[in-house]
Amino acid sequence: MLHLFLLPLFWIGQFDQPTQPAPTNAIQLWGICYDVTTAVYLPVDIYALSGTSRTRLGQSDKDGKFSVLLPLSATSISFVSPTYRTVTLPVTFVNKPTPMTDFGVGIIMGKQDSAVVRQADQLLVRNELPKDLAVDYRVEPTDPRMAVAMMTTPHGNRVLAGMRTSFRKGELMQSVRLEGAKPGLYRALVSTTDGRVLTDKTFTLTKGLTFLEVRADAPAKSASVSAEGSKIITPNKRNPADVPAKPAPVNAADEKRTETAAPGTAIVYFEQSRYELTPETKLSLDSVARLMMSQPQLRAHVTGYTDNVGEQKLNLTLSEYRAKLVAGYLKKQGVSDARLRVDWQGGNALISPGDAEDDKARNRRVVIQFSR
């Protein structure tokens, strides 16, 4: 058994030395790989595949985080970690991204002696839009039924297949990861709040990792009408980020989803009675932290909520834990305490009063409201 294990190491050491592609022909890919069962970050080696050739791009740091240059010629990418099943995902670039544009990704891995982990198809979006404009924004399936459907990811997340939101001037999130993406026809439509279209692109989302750079490459024109017969509205956007030094164990019921909803607002959703932050949610909150670090004048009001199941006193405490955990994670990413205001309201402010599980799930949230 030992000689079977040593052979791959010899192969990697002899023939797969790190080779960085030219910056003019590559994007920057950053993120984490982690155990699907324990949520522990994993050391990984990362490879790009193009045809029959394989190039080692690099490896993660001691904390399991990585940042590598992914060549635009790549057709797939592999993540390799000792004793874990190798994850290889197809790579598709919707439009040729600007060189060195960065995208964030999260990869789950399972041990070799465990069941095969189903990988979610991910739409990785980078927004290169004017920061001095307020915009209505949507990237979602063209089929309106799929656009509003809740998807369940391999980790048990309940997420949307796309996002629809508005951004106030200076508050655009540059990096978004949609883990609920479903292969099929999508549309990226961005317009100013006065109705001028900045970009309107229809594309096909494929299996694996699909990269999309959203940029203002269309002439200004009047906003088109949606399939529902109205202009862009602002409901939901899933964004594709804790206090404990190590993430808590995760199972199918532990995960949450992150969305951006009303203008200048980010929302993190939790499962019932839970308040831990998982690696995927941290990636989404990393986007919030990056936004705040890039705009020192920005402040955030963090408010925790619960559904109305159970005792109100306990729900109030749970909403406090959720709000403080989210604020604590943002502080760890460099956001100063003076820029954060933390509140909690338990189940006193339901946004979905129904008894269905989807309604309850929308109430179990932390809202991050931005202001200047």
From TrEMBL:
TM regions (residue ranges): none
Region (Disordered): 232-258
Pfam families tied to this protein: OmpA
Location relative to the cell: Cell outer membrane
InterPro entries: Bact_OuterMem_StrucFunc (IPR050330), OMP_bac (IPR006664), OmpA-like (IPR006665), OmpA-like_sf (IPR036737)
Statement: the UniProt record of this protein carries the keyword Zinc: no
GO CC annotations on file: cell outer membrane
Primary location class: membrane
UniProt keywords, alphabetically: Cell outer membrane, Membrane
Domain OmpA-like, chain residue ranges per copy: 257-372
Name the record gives this protein: OmpA family protein
Species of provenance: Spirosoma oryzae
